[in-house]
Amino acid sequence: MIKLTAKDKEKLEIIYKKALDQYDDYKALNLKLNMARGKPSPEQLDISTDLITALNKADIDSCSSDYRNYGMIDGIPEAKELFAPMLEVSTKEIIIGGNSSLNMMYDIIIKALIKGVPGVNIPWISSGKVKFLCPSPGYDRHFAICENLGIEMIPIEMTQFGPDMDTVERLTANDESIKGIWCVPKYSNPEGITYSDEVVDRLASMKTKAEDFRIFWDNAYAVHHLSDKKDDLKNVLKACKEAGNPDRVFIFASTSKITFPGAGIAMLASSEDNINGIKKLMSVQTIGPDKLNELRHVKYFNSYENILLHMKKHASILKPKFDLVINILQEQLGDMEIAWWSKPNGGYFISLNTLDGCAKEVVKKAEEAGLTLTNAGATFPYGKDPKDKNIRIAPSYPSLNELKKAIELLCICVKIVCLKKKLEE
Amino acid sequence: MIKLTAKDKEKLEIIYKKALDQYDDYKALNLKLNMARGKPSPEQLDISTDLITALNKADIDSCSSDYRNYGMIDGIPEAKELFAPMLEVSTKEIIIGGNSSLNMMYDIIIKALIKGVPGVNIPWISSGKVKFLCPSPGYDRHFAICENLGIEMIPIEMTQFGPDMDTVERLTANDESIKGIWCVPKYSNPEGITYSDEVVDRLASMKTKAEDFRIFWDNAYAVHHLSDKKDDLKNVLKACKEAGNPDRVFIFASTSKITFPGAGIAMLASSEDNINGIKKLMSVQTIGPDKLNELRHVKYFNSYENILLHMKKHASILKPKFDLVINILQEQLGDMEIAWWSKPNGGYFISLNTLDGCAKEVVKKAEEAGLTLTNAGATFPYGKDPKDKNIRIAPSYPSLNELKKAIELLCICVKIVCLKKKLEE
Hints:
homodimer, Aspartate Aminotransferase, domain 2
């Protein structure tokens, strides 16, 4: 870090003191703001109001089989047709599940641990240690599954193009206990990065010491653009096939942030062989998913094109919130070299990096003034951010007014913590 | 077996030959009847038609929190209140889940294998072999879970009061690897037996060598009476508490055979400590169940009393079918001492026992004439009926007309196979 001149120091000291005063003002407001999770706002949920009443008896009568009854473990054909284009797979390469893609991920990992992955069928646990590569910062719930199931996590640095592939390739080529990698490949959680074509190709084609190494491709934000400026993600299943590793990837998605988080539908896509293997294992576990909720979604959307139009309505609510956050960050912290942030084209998060060693303290300060943020460190395996610098901002839930207050307060906290550090150096 | 007199033999031979002719007549009809599974009929599903449109936007607005969004891992309070009386537990002793109670059973067993049961927290798999007691005949999907997960099954004979408790007590007292027992305690699958109070008490109070032994109490037919002649089942959770083993039982149920098999809701009841432990483990797996489908059920039923009234409609459709089956069995096989059957007060099945060594052949004969039955042996662990005598009859799905044909054909097949055996002895 460049040494501050006396003049610079004086300037920063004034800002720091002002921030201390502002912090007290905010504290006096007794705010109660929560930005911990990437939850859609009530206004966003209202977009899908008609889904609630989209289904009637006549719709059910017009179906080829009785979706009210047992069966169809992999979901109804109409839902496969609706969502296959979203994941760029064929209808034979997709399973439509319950309301939670996280549950499908957990399930696949459990099955791999106990029964092995389809085609290999050697339980991961039979080989002792199981390790996962965890591009970080990443999604805390992915990491929580690993931690809960005793899977050792190896953090991988994120670049602007995706995970640091040199490290990923080196590790997977040499360690047979590395069985998987977590990826949020589009508008990544929390950085909003979309993997480059090269990263996708390298993941698809790299040599892995473990024959049963699998990519867990959580494409949670496939159609979640903030505007017409969209990121493109290379088709990973196609890339895997072309690289001669057709069974390497499990792709997950859901309508949680398309329709309702609490009543959407989730899906899993993979090679036909993987899908058939998973279906066989699932048949022990359940007799089928909620087919009426699948049909409800089919009747509501009718076509993939309508899903894309529907997402524009979400964007029209989300874009002003993301703009507001980025504008305030720029205004308040833009020239100070104490914080840097992502400017994503989609997804649900803005990733804020402070000076090293400051994130925990910033989050604590915010909490004390009534603003709950995602725990600092939560975006890293075991909750440990090695540089203690990453803060995840989730702008979707609060109103614009609340969000303005929250981000202004956050900026004040960043100034208090980071400027103090900078001035002391 | 009493030796047949020459006169008896002659009489049976006439019946046998007539049955052979009748069988050919049926075969010529090219029937295609399926009675393999306990599926509700379309007429039964029509009872719940209004459930499909039971929910509207105003219902959602009137709730204390936004059920469209993430959260509430254990279900909505209104659904707990609605279903707690059905399982005779408090609202703190119940979790409302997705659409499949089988999935909840599978999940609890997976968690026990990998993480241990709440309160003990020692993974079942860490102790090597895991065994389950399997009262048989029983539910094939229970046995399939065990077989799939490598859990060794020990068949336990069923008496008219429930499992043979002398054997159950002896085994659990002496073998630490016995971790569970499967029970369908009311209108059991397939025999329609309801466990006696004594059996419930002995299960609740017996000494178990394994501290983490658990009862898997699949109360699938809690309110599924065929008429006002109802069986009573003792409250097992209460019995466990009184016996000083409050955490011994996991109770499962669903609305699969109350509303829609493909779009119902499932539930798990247990001690508060167990529920809290399970909730903690579930929080890694999912962010919550489909709360709108829970609310839909709440709005549709409104009260537990209405569920009971609703079940009378099912009974009015099912009772004539059960009566028809039992009447034809009596008429055709009543005096021949070649077959015996259950006469349940509820549930979904009639259990037919033939002479030893005949069940497989009867099912095969039926299949060849166009009637698909549950595989003979399916009601026993590993699909092996040691006496090859049990056939599960599922009368719910076919129409009365089809059912009449199916059971007449079944009786002909029983005569052909069993009389042949009897005459040859």
